[in-house]
């Protein structure tokens, strides 16, 4: 069936519509992902909730759908996918599922001039978009801009869940976490309790965590204003590592600010420099918002990592407390695992804290 992506600025990109179970218009924010692989990880990453993801790599679906290794959550997360070409059946994985069947009715628009579309997003910025079969009948009424959508509560767990059986107990505050985070923490010897994003401090305390992990998640971090006092109290009490949305929340909790990038960073090759060591890691990224540098003045947060391409803030450390955060994804999925060493840093931070309390 013929389908279209219509941008909020009126531009129309035609294609072929696969997988849409009905002809209803699907609204979202059009963003682009530049990795060559990782479509299943992207399509199940809760941070993509509310978005229409355009792949710059021309052929998607070609290695198939895995039974689980690539899944970052149990659900299909983006509103829609847009690509140059969709491979009908992928090789590598033996699963009978194809990208279209895995999408479960969420639209996939193929045969799109993604190069022209991505250039447009790069110049005009990420913006509202619709996947439709009738571009002349599109309406923008009653569409809440993504900045104002409360997306975290759609993706955060409703109940607590425990994984692994290691000696170090990590409480993962779930703003829409990727499974790879839990898997990595468990591989490093942790027991992980995943808790809802709005878990009150006494409940966290009852769990007696050795450390906290503040996860990634969708949407505008300022939608979580109400949670900031609890987040601040919790991270001041326990060694904390925070990733992506979690990193932005740490800045907000300590009085910093966030701003939206024109078109964000989504891909697998963003170079990040550690200002303390000079080491550069190629990183997996997926974000629209960044911590605003000027807003950190007067806070106790220091910038530890910077994006080599645009000098945006990529990592923070608290001057006094064991709190570290990064804007990128050390758990990868999809992308390079160069920055996995940050998990070792987190466990060292926890071990040091334990030592201090034993001697206190
Ligand atoms: N992956 C994430 O956690 C994304 C954080 C936030 N939603 C952003 O777009 O900047």
How would you characterize the overall build of this protein?
A hairpin with a 5-residue loop joins strand 15 and strand 16. With 360 residues, the chain is an alpha/beta fold. The chain is built from nine helices and 19 strands. The strands form three sheets. It has a ten-stranded mixed beta sheet with strand order 10-12-11-13-14-19-18-17-15-16, with helices on both faces. Strands 1-2-8-6-4-3-9 form a seven-stranded mixed beta barrel. A two-stranded parallel ribbon has the order 5-7. The longest helix is centred in the C-terminal third of the chain and has 19 residues, at 341-359. It is globular and about 70 Å long. The structure holds glutamine.
Q: In CATH's first tier, which class of the largest domain applies?
A: Alpha Beta
Main sheet summary? 10 strands, mixed
Question: Which residues form runs of ≥5 with pLDDT under 50?
Answer: none
Strand residue content? 25-35%
- What order do the helices and strands follow? EEEHEEEEHEHEHEEHEHEHEHEEEEEH
Give the number of helices: 9
Q: Please tally the β strands and state the result.
A: 19
Helix content: 10-25%
Mean pLDDT: 96
CATH superfamily of the largest domain: Class I glutamine amidotransferase (GATase) domain
What name is given to the CATH topology of the largest domain? Rossmann fold
Bound small molecules, by name, code or SMILES, are: glutamine
The CATH architecture of the largest domain can be named as 3-Layer(aba) Sandwich
State the end-to-end CA separation: 69 Å
Structural class: alpha/beta
Rounded radius of gyration (Å): 20 Å
Q: Label the overall shape.
A: globular
Looking across the biggest beta sheet, what order are the strands in?
10-12-11-13-14-19-18-17-15-16
